[in-house]
Predict the 3D structure of the following.
Amino acid sequence: MYLNQQKQLEAGLREALRSLYQIEVDTVVLEQPPELAFGEYATPLAFELARRLRKAPRKIAEEIVAALGPVPGFAGFEVAGGGYINARLDRAAAVESYAMSGDVPPPRQRLHELVEHTSINPNKAAHVGHLRNAILGDTFVRLLRAAGHQVDVQNYIDNTGVQVADVVVGLMHLEGLTLRGVEEWVAELAATGERIDYACWDLYARVSLWYAGDPDQTEARKKIRLDTLHAIEAGGNDVARIAELISTAILRRHLETMLRLGIEYDLLPRESEILHLHFWDLAFEQLKAKGVLYFETEGKNKGCWVMKRPGTAETEPDGGPDEDAKVIVRSNGTVTYVGKDIAYHLWKFGLLGRDFAYRPFFRYADRECWISAETGEANHPHFGGAQAIYNVIDSRQADPQANVIEALRGLGYTEQAAHYTHFSYEMVALTPRCAMELGYEVAPEDQARPYIEVSGRKGFGVKADDLIDKLIAATRAEVDSRHPELSEAERDATARAIAVGALRYFMLRFTRNSVIAFDFKDALSFEGETGPYLQYAVVRTRSIFRKAGTTPEAALAGLRGLDLAPYLSGPGTEGIWDVWLRTAKTTLLLDQCIQTAEPAYLAKHAFQLAQDFSNFYRLHHILSEEDPARKALLLATAAVTHRELIRSLAWLGISAPEVM
RNA sequence: GGGCGAGUAGCUCAAUCGGAUAGAGCACCGGCCUUCUAAGCCGGGGGUUGUGGGUUCGAUUCCCGCCUCGCCCA
């Protein structure tokens, strides 16, 4: 809607430029004036043309305004300042169209999209950093789906890597357990309701200390670690069975944790199948055939299969070996992580020539989450073969991600490489104060820093479930004191919705490349720019309709045929049009978020709409309004706020309770 | 050594393709619950946008140098 008006204005301006000066411009910059009193749109077009036309900007602006014919949807144009052209919408017409249409236009290009997120090593509990990943990823999935895209959601599981190996080492060598013993331990944890991911969190930290704990044993323990890893990779032995048992149990816990936040997955592809189904062999053949990989015969990478790094020259000027090249196959024949990742991404795009087998793994309310397998069920949904992919992975992985893209490009898959997005974001760190509150020792030099990186290896961090539990406890206390009349179940559901809203908004309000310095004080805040603030605005609109005895839909329909113009500008109408204009931008924001892969813009938009509504709510008392037409508009203003907030919040994965 | 990101109010963050008076939240100070929910609202103070240059009618934004911090690669 807002976008349509923008296009109309742009077309009008272009036409004026053609008829006046016979010129075409590449882009017509349209922005919103600093105050709504100046109009809804402004363009600095005249400034840009001043030099080209050898005229004063103000003069040009005046000529353009004079030449502009009537533009559909607009009431008038004027020149402001040194040469801005301000445009005013026909507010009454705009309100009527905003009220009737809340639809999202179909996407320009409908691709089969694949979003991968969460991807936690299944050897310990999820922490706040993983929450940021999962919430960003899940929100982006919701945005893509809202825009009409078909999206598959994957959560990649590295179940055969060193992190899982470390926990297996802990169980076998620190705890002295055999496969049988581990099975009993897992059963015992399940029986007592103890969280296995928590138990392994501590064990993992202990193993890290153990490796370096005795200088005489360092080499021997390194060997144990490597042997364990190799046994897991090979499969078909007790070590691998322990790894499978532990990683699967922890994976289930991760899925349960994420489900608390409304986060679901379609498929869990695992590294074990990538290994055992020999994805790499097929990728290796392609990479060799296309010359992407070459065998290095000199220098430090002698005996390795290497690949040119993105951004480096084709050959070294001096003709020597490219020492900068990325090793894909080591001289001992083992494949690096990037190599396996290339094979996996060829599968994602349907370019590998081999598929996983699949079996159901985790049941959601209305669907199944599948997992990769060596042998699976005959009937399964089709996975992979995407046209565009998004990998939600923190910014530290930028280098390996760039290598995978470079390999795709080298193989001639330029289209796929262009539709490969590393959805990068900065880490969640802890403030020194938060770390000390949690009882960790913080070195004096670290205390002066704004944040400290979390480390699963050291057991340093805030566990996701602990944070969620704390949030629920805090919201539950509030709900209990505010609404003792509600049933236990209602209070529980309300507290959970608010807790999830607070957490999801907290993780989404920062732009992706900003490090979040985590602090319980901020994360547990329910005032100001927070999820509960947005939910509260919705609750207020609900309360209005409850007391008015009508619905938002009826209120919006009730505008038909009314003369609204007197109520949309002038004294006594402050704050009404602001709400309408804001609501009209929701689909624009959706589009912008997808184009830039930045959900924070929508979070900010929803907050601003809630602020606009609060302002409107203060200035206009709806239920006591006596002028019927004016009352209809005020009710519709609450209704359009309700409609747009509910839908924006849904895209952010936040639901608004009935009362709070 | 190379690459990426960042530096904006006391703190945490915004700022659309380079546009009008750099905006929010928190914290602080002062007000507002007898009209639709105070998890709210109103008002106030608070800025040399790290630094030095350049481009431009116009720079937080683009370019170059320097400083500081974080991450990644060797």
User: Anything to note?
Assistant: The first helix of chain A runs from residue 2 to 21.
